[in-house]
C-alpha cells in the first residue's frame, strides 16, 4: 500500500485533476466528499475517453469517475488485496479506515510483475513455514491467530480452518504467546505444556511496526514429549543400573574378601597375611601357583581390601593374540587400523583407572608388550593405538602365573626388569594336595554355593565321601574340586551326597590309595594294583576287544579272561 496518492473533492474539474496527475506522475486520483468519504476514482484512461468525445475539460471530474469502487480494509492482508485485484481484474484498490481513504494498492502499470512477486512472496513464506519441523503460530495484537503452519496442525491436532481468525486462548488457555502480548517480553526455549500430554520447547517473540507499536507475536513450538519421556526412562534405567551395580559390588565384596578364603593350612594362612598387609598399598603383586589354586580369588580379594574405587579388570595374557595385545591393553582411536570400530575404544588400563588390572598368565605375554608394560609401570602414562595424545592412569597391577618366570628369564623369554617390577611382593599359593586339612571346608563352601545357584537342597552328606575326596590328588586343584562338587550336587538324589555321587575316576584312585595304605611295601599288592590299572587302560584303549587287548598285553587270551574275572573288570 502507498499513502502517496492524489485526493480531490467532487467539485474538482477534469482540467485541474489532469494537471495534478501530470505534476505528481500519477495514473489516478481519488475523489472524496466533504466528509472524506470515497466517491470514485478517475484514471488517465478515463481522460483519454473524455478527449475522444470532445467533452469540456472544465466539467466536474466526478461526472466521469468510476463510482462503484471496490475497496479493502486497512487490517486486511496483502494476500487478500492481491486476490481481490485478480478476481475483479482491477489495478487499483483503495484502502479504507473508518470510512476514509488512507492509502491505495496499485500495480503501477506493471500488474503482471506485481502479482508474480506477490505470489513468490506468499509461496516462499508458505513453503518455508510449512516445512519447518517446529510448529509456527502468528497472533495479532489481540491474540487472533493469523498464521498456523502444518507442523502446528500435526502437533496439536488443530486444523488451519478451525483456528485461523480465532482467539488463541480459546484453544490454549495458558498459551505463552498471550503472556508475551501482555508483557511484551520475549521467551526463549521454555519448557511448556500448552495442552495435557504435549510437552514443547517454546520460543515466542513480539513484533513491532515502524512506530514501535506491538502488532504481533510469533511463536515456535518443538515437540519434546518423546524426548522427555525417553529422558525419564533413561533416568529410571540409570537408577536401576546403579542399584544393580551396588548390589553386584556388594556381592563381589562378600564373595571376594580375605575372611571368605578357606584355609587352615600354614602356607595358605601365611599367603593371606601377606595379601592383607599389601592390599591398602599401591605396590605391584605377583601371585604364583599352579592352575586352579585360586590366584584370581586372591587378586580380587586384594582389590576389595585396597579401598580403590575403580574397577577390577582381569585379562588372560595367554588368550590374547599377539597382534591384539596393544589395542586390548591401551585401546585405540578411530581409524587406527583396518576393522577399528568407529570412535575408537578404551583399553583395559583406562577401564581399570583408579582400580586394579589383573594380568593373569603374565608368563605368556610377548616380549614386545613386556617392554611397553614396563614403561607404563614406570610413569603411569599410556598412548592409545594411533594416537600421540598421552593418557595418565592410576592403575594398580596384580600379575599371576603358573610358570617359572626365573627359568623364562634365563631362556630370554621374560624380561628380568619387568619381573622385579611386578614381583615387589610375591605370594605363592600351594597346591590343594598340600592342603588336605582344607578340603572338607572347601567342599562345604562349594556345596553351599552350588546348591544356592542351582536351587538344589542338599540335606545329607556321607562322611565317607569326605574321606575319599580328601585322599584324592587334585591335579586341577581348587577349580577341579569345585567342578566335581557341582557335578555331585546336580546328579544327587533326594538331597543326598553319597559315595556313588563321586566320579568314578576319583573312586578308582581312592581304591588304589586304600590298597596301598594297608602296607605300602607289600610287593604282591603293588604288583596287583599295577596289573589291574594296566589291564583297565588297555581294555579302554581297544574298546573292550579282548583279542586285541591280549595281544597288546602279550598274554594268552585265557589268561586275560582269568585276570578280568579276578579284578572284576567288565
What labels describe this entry?
570 residues; alpha/beta; Beta-Lactamase; Rossmann fold; 5 domains; 5-stranded antiparallel beta sheet; 5-stranded parallel beta sheet; 19% strand; rod-shaped
Query: And the CATH topology of the largest domain?
Result: Rossmann fold
How many domains?
A: 5
* Helix fraction by DSSP (H/I, runs of at least 4): 40-55%
CATH architecture of the largest domain: 3-Layer(aba) Sandwich
Termini separation:
116 Å
Average per-residue pLDDT, rounded, comes to: 84
Major sheet description: 5 strands, antiparallel
CATH class of the largest domain: Alpha Beta
CATH superfamily of the largest domain: P-loop containing nucleotide triphosphate hydrolases
Q: What structural category arises from helix and sheet content?
A: alpha/beta
| Oligomerization category of the chains in this entry | single chain
Give the overall form.
rod-shaped
Counting DSSP E segments of at least 2 residues, the number of strands comes to 22
Give a brief outline of the structure.
This protein has 570 residues and is an alpha/beta fold. The strands form 7 sheets. Strands 8-7-11-10-9 form a 5-stranded antiparallel sheet, sandwiched between helices. A 5-stranded parallel sheet has the order 13-16-19-12-20. A 3-stranded mixed sheet has the order 1-2-3.
Give a structural overview.
With about 575 residues, the chain is α/β, with parallel strands linked by helices. The chain has five domains: about 5-115, CBS-domain, CATH 3.10.580; about 130-225, Beta-Lactamase, CATH 3.30.450.20; about 255-425, 3-Layer(aba) Sandwich (Rossmann fold); about 430-515, Helicase, Ruva Protein, domain 3 (Orthogonal Bundle); about 520-570, Homeodomain-like (Arc Repressor Mutant, subunit A), CATH 1.10.10. About 45% of the residues lie in helices and about 20% in strands. The protein contains 22 helices and 22 strands. The strands form seven sheets. The chain has a five-stranded antiparallel sheet, sandwiched between helices. The protein has a five-stranded parallel sheet with strand order 13-16-19-12-20. A three-stranded mixed sheet has the order 1-2-3. Strand 17 and strand 18 form a beta hairpin. Helix 3 (about 80-90) packs across helix 4 (about 110-130) and helix 20 (about 525-540) crosses helix 21 (about 545-555). The longest helix is centred in the middle third of the chain and has 31 residues, at about 225-255. About 25% of the residues are buried. Mean pLDDT is about 85; it is low at about 110-115.
Amino acid at each position: 500500500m502507498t499513502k502517496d496518492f492524489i485526493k480531490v473533492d467532487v467539485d474538482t474539474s477534469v482540467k485541474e485533476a489532469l494537471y495534478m496527475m501530470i505534476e505528481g506522475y500519477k495514473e489516478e486520483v481519488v475523489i472524496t466528499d466533504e466528509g472524506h468519504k470515497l466517491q470514485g476514482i478517475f484514471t488517465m484512461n478515463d481522460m483519454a475517453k473524455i478527449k475522444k468525445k470532445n467533452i469540456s475539460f472544465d466539467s466536474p471530474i466526478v461526472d466521469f469517475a468510476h463510482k462503484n469502487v471496490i475497496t479493502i480494509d486497512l487490517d486486511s492482508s496483502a494476500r487478500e488485496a492481491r486476490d481481490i485485484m485478480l478476481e475483479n481484474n482491477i489495478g487499483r484498490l483503495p484502502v479504507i479506515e473508518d470510512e476514509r481513504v488512507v492509502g491505495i494498492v496499485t500495480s503501477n502499470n506493471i500488474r503482471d510483475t506485481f502479482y508474480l512477486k506477490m505470489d513468490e512472496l506468499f509461496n516462499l513464506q508458505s513453503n518455508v513455514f510449512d516445512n519447518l519441523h517446529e510448529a509456527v503460530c502468528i497472533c495479532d495484537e489481540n491474540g487472533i491467530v493469523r498464521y498456523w503452519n502444518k507442523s502446528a496442525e500435526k502437533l496439536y491436532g488443530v486444523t488451519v480452518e478451525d483456528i485461523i481468525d480465532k482467539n488463541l486462548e480459546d484453544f490454549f488457555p495458558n498459551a505463552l504467546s498471550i503472556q508475551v502480548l501482555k508483557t511484551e517480553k520475549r521467551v526463549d526455549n521454555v519448557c511448556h505444556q500448552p495442552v495435557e500430554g504435549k510437552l514443547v520447547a517454546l520460543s515466542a517473540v513480539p513484533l513491532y511496526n515502524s512506530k514501535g507499536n506491538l502488532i504481533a507475536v510469533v511463536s515456535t513450538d518443538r515437540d519434546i514429549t518423546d524426548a522427555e519421556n525417553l529422558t525419564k526412562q533413561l533416568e529410571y534405567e540409570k537408577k536401576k543400573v546403579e542399584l544393580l551395580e551396588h548390589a553386584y559390588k556388594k556381592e563381589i565384596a562378600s564373595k571376594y574378601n580375605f575372611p571368605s578364603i578357606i584355609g587352615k593350612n600354614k602356607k595358605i594362612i601365611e599367603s593371606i597375611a601377606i595379601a592383607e598387609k599389601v592390599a591398602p598399598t599401591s605396590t605391584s603383586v605377583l601371585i604364583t601357583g599352579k592352575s586352579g589354586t585360586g590366584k584370581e580369588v586372591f587378586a580380587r580379594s586384594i582389590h576389595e581390601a585396597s579401598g580403590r574405587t575403580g574397577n577390577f579388570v582381569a585379562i588372560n595374557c595367554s588368550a590374547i593374540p599377539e597382534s591384539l595385545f596393544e589395542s586390548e591393553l591401551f585401546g585405540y582411536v578411530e581409524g587406527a587400523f583396518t576393522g577399528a570400530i568407529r570412535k575408537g575404544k578404551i583399553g583395559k588400563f583406562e577401564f581399570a583407572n583408579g582400580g586394579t588390572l589383573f594380568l593373569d598368565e603374565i608368563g605368556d605375554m610377548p616380549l614386545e608388550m613386556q617392554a611397553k608394560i614396563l614403561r607404563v609401570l614406570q610413569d603411569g602414562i599410556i598412548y592409545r593405538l594411533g594416537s600421540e595424545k598421552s593418557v595418565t592412569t592410576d592403575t594398580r597391577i596384580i600379575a599371576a602365573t603358573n610358570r617359572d618366570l626365573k627359568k623364562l628369564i634365563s631362556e630370554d623369554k621374560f624380561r628380568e626388569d619387568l619381573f622385579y617390577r611386578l614381583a615387589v611382593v610375591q605370594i605363592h599359593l600351594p597346591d590343594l594336595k598340600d592342603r588336605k586339612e582344607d578340603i572338607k571346608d572347601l567342599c562345604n563352601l562349594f556345596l553351599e554355593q552350588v546348591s544356592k545357584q542351582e536351587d538344589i537342597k542338599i540335606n545329607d552328606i556321607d562322611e565317607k565321601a569326605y574321606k575319599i575326596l580328601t585322599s584324592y590328588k587334585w591335579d586341577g586343584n581348587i577349580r577341579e574340586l569345585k567342578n566335581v562338587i557341582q557335578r555331585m550336587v546336580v546328579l544327587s538324589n533326594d538331597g543326598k551326597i553319597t559315595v556313588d555321587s563321586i566320579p568314578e575316576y576319583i573312586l578308582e584312585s581312592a581304591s588304589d590309595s586304600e590298597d596301598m595304605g594297608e602296607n605300602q611295601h607289600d610287593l604282591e599288592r603293588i604288583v596287583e594294583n599295577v596289573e589291574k590299572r594296566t589291564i583297565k587302560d588297555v581294555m579302554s584303549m581297544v574298546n573292550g576287544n579282548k583279542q586285541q587287548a591280549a595281544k597288546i598285553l602279550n598274554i594268552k587270551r585265557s589268561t586275560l579272561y582269568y585276570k578280568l574275572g579276578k579284578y572284576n573288570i567288565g
